[in-house]
Amino acid sequence: MRCIHSYLKSKSNIGASNRTWFQSLYLRLISMMKTLLLTVVLGVVVVSAKSAHAEDAIREDVIHLEAENGQLSGTTVATTRAGFSGAGYVSGFLADADTVSWVIPRAKAGIYQVALRYSADNPKGFGVVVNGARAEGMFAATGGQFATQTAGKVELKDGENTVSIAKGWGHYDIDFIELSSASNLAVLPKPPATLVDAKATAPARALMELLVRNYGEKTLSGQYDPGDTAYVREVTGQTPAILGADFMDYSPSRVAHGSKNKPPTEEIIALAKAGQIVTLSWHWNAPSHLIDAPYIDKNGQISTAFWWRGFYTDATTFDLEKTLNNPNSADYKLLLRDIDALAVQLKKLDAAGVPVLWRPLHEADGTWFWWGAKGEEPFKKLWRLMFERLTQTHDLHNLIWVYTGSPEKPEWYPGDDVVDIYGVDSYPADRNDTLSSSWEALRAQFDGKKLLTLSEFKGVPDAVKMKRFGVNWSYFVAWTGDSGPRTQPAADVKRTYNAPNVVNAKDLPR
């Protein structure tokens, strides 16, 4: 602008009409430059009154939305907690329908990284809903302060989009949400294919090498229960690469009640010989102290802790911490007895040359199973006891050790020296949820160190969408029954099993 003004002064002898034309041009340029400067400084594009205020910035690459400017349903604007940005924050999130929502009037289609500034006294689940598609995540505890946390990725369409924060577990505060373009997805580094068991069998090593080779490029399919596997085959024409089974009914306290494991080990071996990979979990019925009687629960209600619920914390008084601290006790001997009973079955698989994705003591950090009821230290001690008992006492080396945990609870992780694969069990409200929030949190901890897998899922995940979001679990294993593939649209199941980035049984090396 200064150069134009100087030019006009130097041309003071030009005709009046030309001078008037230059002055008019000068004024128009000043107006244009002011508008441009305002846009650059504020990063603001004009938005509708219902969707944003002056504190909100909506650009092509970054969309910043203050919570207090959103549309509130059951929630309220508050200012009592220090450290918020803008004019306040949104509190509440107590009822299931409580939300804060925004309308983004003009957005560029693409994948966006979500960041949330929030406060939560304890770990809390939450939901991010974009145009009706829900993604779930977990807030870490912030100790009463506001903190910013990445919350996975979402997909926006061209034009108008609606974004909401849904309750989830509730009892947290939201300061703002920010969405930034994530068009360039980070390359996923492959971890070493070396197993934690130095004496691992050749089949176990070959399986781990297969998983590492596919990691970041393709995901292996999996299904618990032969019955649900048959359903998947009927709907998709494909057999899952991985067969999931449970050794629950080999627990001695269940055998004492006449239980028979389904499927038995011999059937699992036959299915492995037919071309499937085996993953085994163990809903371990407590070795002793099963309640097996009515009792008053924490809500004052009468409940019955049947013996067959003996893997749940509320169905047994078995004290893991006390047992581990008293190795000469009867309960300690029963603990070893149970592990030894499972070793008998695992040895059958070893003798048949079948490697196992071994997933014991799962979901301990939820504390709903007795092996997690006394906290992380007794659990980690039990994990190591089992590792040593099976690999050293029983000379079992066909096992690939899969830990199942939560990324927001790293204190439960048993250690890199006794874990080969980190698994997540997820039962999202929306089965098309990519779980990108959990994926990114785990990558921050284990990138290049451990394979990450979806060890349980509520049905069949949307592997195509996950790939587009850069979420590349090593494998998935769908759960069974009402939480299995029979209760979701057959078209969704078929799409995943016939996706180019999914490995099925027919694609496995022979």
From TrEMBL:
Domain CBM6: 63-180
Molecular function via GO: carbohydrate binding; mannan endo-1,4-beta-mannosidase activity
Gene3D superfamilies reported in the protein's UniProt record: Galactose-binding domain-like (2.60.120.260), Glycosidases (3.20.20.80)
InterPro entries: CBM6, Galactose-bd-like_sf, GH, GH26_dom, Glyco_hydro_26
GO biological process terms held by the UniProt record: substituted mannan metabolic process
Active site residues according to the UniProt entry: 363 (proton donor), 456 (nucleophile)
Record's keyword annotation contains Ribosomal protein: no
Domain GH26, chain residue ranges per copy: 202-506
Keywords: Glycosidase, Hydrolase
Similarity-based family: Belongs to the glycosyl hydrolase 26 family.
Protein name as annotated: Mannan endo-1,4-beta-mannosidase
